[in-house]
Amino acid sequence: MSQYLIRSGDRAAFLTGLRELADFLTAYPAVLAPRSASFGVFVDASDPATRREAAEHMAEPLGVPVEDIGEGHYSARREFGPITYTVIALPPKEKR
Q1: Cβ(87)–Cβ(41) under 8 Å?
Q2: How many CA atoms lie within 13 A of 40 on its CB side?
Q3: What is the CB neighbour count within 10 angstroms for residue 3?
Q4: How confident is residue 1, by pLDDT bands cut at 50, 70 and 90?
Q5: What was the pLDDT predicted at 82?
Q6: What gap in Å lies between CA 33 and CA 24, rounded to an integer?
Q7: What is the DSSP letter of 95?
Q8: Which of 16, 28, 32, 38 is at 20 to 30 A from 71, Cα to Cα?
Q9: 82 to each of 57, 79, 85, how far by Cα in Å?
Q10: pLDDT (0 to 100) of residue 24
């Protein structure tokens, strides 16, 4: 398998934070909710084929296709109402 790095966070802490936010907004209806929100997981890899492979690996359980957005960038996203979960595969800084 090719080498790539997936930059993600602490899953348990993220899910706890989402639940806390939902509970807070439910308990305090006077606090306005955002119109939309977006969360992303980033993939780093040195070559385009590996970036696409990594993006496809991440997109498969989401059930969404990977889009080539040009210049070595790949993206996959799934929407949950007004909330978007995105996988973004970026070329190395020197190739951007």
Answers
A1: yes
A2: 11
A3: 10
A4: very low
A5: 97
A6: 10
A7: G
A8: 38
A9: 24, 7, 10
A10: 98
Q: What is the mean pLDDT of residues 53-64?
A: 95
Report how far residue 37's alpha carbon sits from residue 85's, in angstroms, rounded to the nearest whole number: 9
Mean pLDDT for 52-75 is 94
pLDDT digits (tens, 9 = 90+) for 39-56: 999 988 888 888 999 999
Residue 18 sits at the vertex; the CA angle it makes with 79 and 69, to the nearest 5 degrees, is 35
Residues 6+ apart with CB under 8 A from 34: 82
**What is the DSSP secondary-structure string of 29-51?**
TTSPPPS-EEEEEEEE-SSHHHH
Has residue 83 got a pLDDT over 80? yes
CA distance 7 to 45: 11
* Largest Cα span, the chain: 51
* Structure tokens, 63: 């059930």
Tokens describing residue 44 = 């780093």
Two tokens, residue 38:
């977006």
